[in-house]
Amino acid sequence: MEINELKATLRNNTGKGVARRLRKSGLVPAVVYGNNKDTLLLAVSANELTKLLRGKEENVFINLRVENGKIIEKFTLIKELQLNPVNRKFLHVDFYEIDKQQAITLDIPIHFKGEAVGVELGGDLHHVKREIKVSCLFAVLPDFFEVDVSHLNIGDSIKVQDLKLPEGITILDHEDTILASVTAPKTTVQAEQIEEVEPVVGEEPKEQS
Length: 209
Known about the structure:
By secondary structure, the protein is mainly beta. 10% of the residues lie in helices and 43% in strands.
């Protein structure tokens, strides 16, 4: 799992006016909390944060270097990132401090690979889940889980219990949870042609003489 570096400065004041002034000067208001420590009010560079997040998906880990006369390092995860809905500029960022010696719980992306044999036979491949919730130490935390679907035939599926996990990782999703499946194609039901049969006209009884 990649660790990024980002500088931050302590700030003492709060409020909308303070936040607006920070943004005008190219900074983003931020906080860091967690790990049973006091919350710190911070400001980080909007440009540096933009560069850091470029091309990233989820679970962005950052080693914050907080300047306060001396450098304080905090190992963090971006917990929440608020954006302006119009111009998409940063409004606020929450950093969650992590203890590398304690297990953390995160959703890890699933990357599917391969072409299912069932699809070649006309079936439909369904990616049922895109993430798996795990608990483990940071040292063994994977960037993603790779799931090969090439062996799936029509009617087959891959479940959580089918995954081969590295040692030290616990999956919190139920073992019967389906990750991907191949189903039979939906068939078009053709209406039956109704053959019109002319009624049989019986002979009228003859009069008795």
